[in-house]
Amino acid sequence: MIRLLLVIALGLPVSVYAAEGALFLSPARAQYEIGDVFEVRIFADTGGAFITAAEAELEFNPAMLRILDVRTENSILSTWATAPDFSNEDGTVRLSGWVPGPAYRGTRGELATIEFEAHEIGAGDIELLSGSLLSRDDAGSNVVT
Questions:
Q1: Spatial distance between the Cα atoms of 32 and 93, rounded to a whole number of angstroms
Q2: Contact 86, 93 (CB under 8 A)
Q3: What's the mean pLDDT in 50-62?
Q4: What pLDDT is attached to residue 10?
Q5: By the 8 A CB rule, do 124 and 60 touch?
Q6: Is residue 135 classed exposed, middle or buried when 0-12, 13-18 and 19+ CB atoms within 10 A define those classes?
Q7: For residue 119, how many other CB atoms are within 10 A of its CB?
Q8: pLDDT category of residue 28 using cuts at 50, 70 and 90
Q9: Which of 5, 23, 42, 77 could bridge to 131 as Cys pair (CB 3.0-4.6 Å)?
Q10: What rounded mean pLDDT belongs to the chain?
């Protein structure tokens, strides 16, 4: 049985304090066989702040993985500045949008679900390259540290 080890790089803070948010991926680590279809979710932890918008950019190894779909039905975002867009050639995913209503505050706000297929043997790293969570304050500060 051939297995593909998928390792997802995270940018989790050691401690979360007020107004110090983070974006993170789930699951953090998993193993899949070639041909397996699996999901990776992008989550926001607002660190106690109220946010009105979010954006994220991910990179993955297109030699190991292929995106089948990006879904947003469970997203805390409702209006898209950049609708979730991906490239299997470049190994990228980008999205940005606004939160409905006055704001969102929480530790596990889903931004999107990415459906991947494992198609080669090896480590298929998925990494958050950049992202922001914009606060409801007058300055619209980025609460990601």
A1: 21
A2: yes
A3: 96
A4: 37
A5: yes
A6: buried
A7: 15
A8: confident
A9: 23
A10: 86
Structure tokens at 67: 């995106």
Site of tokens 């953090």: 28
Q: Kindly list the strands in the beta sheet with 65-71, ordered across the sheet, starting from the edge strand earlier in the chain.
A: 22-26, 37-45, 109-118, 65-71
The answer on pLDDT for 58 being more than 60 is: yes
Task: Cite the beta strand spans of the chain per DSSP E.
Answer: 3-9, 22-26, 29-33, 37-45, 51-60, 65-71, 79-87, 92-98, 109-118, 126-135
Tokens of 133: 């969570």
pTM of the predicted structure, to 2 decimals: 0.84
Evaluated on CA atoms 78, 69, 54, 97, the torsion sign reads: negative
What lies within 8 Å, CB to CB, of 107 at 6+ separation is 16, 45, 46
Region at 81 (left for phi over 0; alpha for psi -120 to 50; beta for the rest): alpha
CB within 8 A of 101, min separation 6: which ones?
Answer: none
